[in-house]
Amino acid sequence: MTHMDLNTPASLETIQASTRVLAFDIFGTVVDWHGSIVREMQTLYPSVDANAFALAWRAGYVPAMARVQSGELGWTRIDELHRMILDDLLPQFGLTHLNEAERVHLNRVWHRLDAWPDSVAGLLRLKKKFTICTLSNGNLGLLTHMAKHAGLPWDCVLSAEVFRAYKPDPATYLGVANVFDLQPQEIMLCAAHHDDLAGARACGLRTAYIERPLEFGASRVKDVSPQAGNDLHAHDLNGLADLLGC
Amino acid sequence: MTHMDLNTPASLETIQASTRVLAFDIFGTVVDWHGSIVREMQTLYPSVDANAFALAWRAGYVPAMARVQSGELGWTRIDELHRMILDDLLPQFGLTHLNEAERVHLNRVWHRLDAWPDSVAGLLRLKKKFTICTLSNGNLGLLTHMAKHAGLPWDCVLSAEVFRAYKPDPATYLGVANVFDLQPQEIMLCAAHHDDLAGARACGLRTAYIERPLEFGASRVKDVSPQAGNDLHAHDLNGLADLLGC
Questions:
Q1: Whether residue A20 sits in one domain with residue A52
Q2: How many domains does chain B have?
């Protein structure tokens, strides 16, 4: 179920010998945001179309970050962006009656996302050979709470919040290399999103694509066929551990 | 072996009910820098007075940070400060012959410090009830490597490097509250140094003093008697877990 991309720029031997740090995208790559939000909505607000709600909330994410990146908003953490999107979204789902405490609780669902079934086992294998860290646009508090909730065994939690820039800003990818005093090619970004991997590759990092066909749920299955440029292509995090000899 | 300070400003019940995050000073509080450096020097350079060497290296730390705090040096990580101090120190210990690779290796001893015997067990107990993080002047890479070396189970690695300020700058203590979106009194700084605890207290954090009488080795035993102002006074991290009901 795991295989290398045919256009791999670096040999597996080179990658295994030179990679020191694996930096992971989180939403969709390590945790199942769609399934987690659907399950929580079905419990809390069963009359709402949970699939549509989860997709709409996530769809607001890139435009909200773009308002920060353009300078329209000053530096804003994802917790605050999630809340702005949520408040905008509640009317169309008949949830305007939610009070402040209910909105705060619902917004924190992003701190309570469940891992994909392979994530913890795969990370534990990878952690024996590499330093494993997050590199997410999620804020430090969110990522820390999520790690406690889902049992994710990070060596270090890194975030856009540390670098004051959102991916795909080069400051994030190069920031990881700087933190560990390494060359960019000694860092590998592991992500389920080609645009994120392209940003990392442009900075000289190695890249591993992780298939997550159900990231957006069963109603919108993702094309996870290999694309040129990525160093590795893995079915899941156990597959990545296989490829990296862990 | 553990007891509360007689001048405790907050009751133990209040502290147990309201504390959410324990932030730990690292050098001396969680890891034994003196003993670790002595052991490594005795192995690498047995002719050197390892105790004097360790004490001299550490003594250069506060003056080096003061050069950053005064603006004489721009933002500089502890790894670089340790190296500057080391280079200054080698002549008086007859080690000017060390080449670049040997100096790099020796400087990284700060990434390989051993934990005090109680640290890992105490942290594992505390982690079940609280979020546990570092709050150290050590840089993120150093703290991450140390955690892997010593098995320290942090939920999150925070550092002066994140806040671009060294303790006791208020930006560091208040930075932890900001990261977790909490009030200062919901954070407790745990440290073996009264000046660090005083800085945290001035920002509204709770404080726990950890006795480490042998921080500077057997030749310079530290007075660890209770001082007024700290919320808790513990013999070690297991004692802190006892006090906090973990």
A1: no
A2: 2
What range defines the domain where residue B45 resides? Answer: 33-111
Separation in Å, CA B243 to CA A174, A204, B94: 43, 49, 47
Q: What is the CATH number of the domain that holds A104?
A: 1.10.150.240
Please check whether residue B108 touches A, CB under 8 A: no
ipTM: 0.93
Please, are residues A65 and A81 in contact by the beta-carbon 8 Å criterion? yes
Residues B207 and B136 grouped into a single domain: yes
Report how far residue A214's alpha carbon sits from residue A220's, in angstroms, rounded to the nearest whole number.
7
Task: State how far the Cα of B108 lies from the Cα of B89, in Å rounded to an integer.
Answer: 16
Does B6 map to a domain? no
B144:A162 CB<8 A: no
- pLDDT value of position B7: 47
Tell me, yes or no, whether B51 and B21 share the same domain. no
Q: Rounded CA gap, A75 and A64, in Å?
A: 11
- Whether residue B6 is predicted with pLDDT greater than 50 in this model: the reply is no
CB B94 within 8 A of CB B74: no
Res. B214: pLDDT tops 60: yes
Is the minimum CB–CB distance between A50 and chain B shorter than 8 Å?
A: no
Residue A1 lies in a domain: no
3-class SS of residue A68: helix
Can you spell out the DSSP letters for B117-154? TTHHHHHHHHHHHSEEEEEESS-HHHHHHHHHHHT---
| Partner-chain contact B144 A79, CB within 8 Å | no
pLDDT digits (tens, 9 = 90+) for B77-90: 999 999 999 999 99
Three-state DSSP at B29 gives: coil
pLDDT at A1 over 80: no
Mean pLDDT of chain A: 95
Q: Which of A140, A147, A155 is nearest residue B144 as measured by Cβ atoms?
A: A155
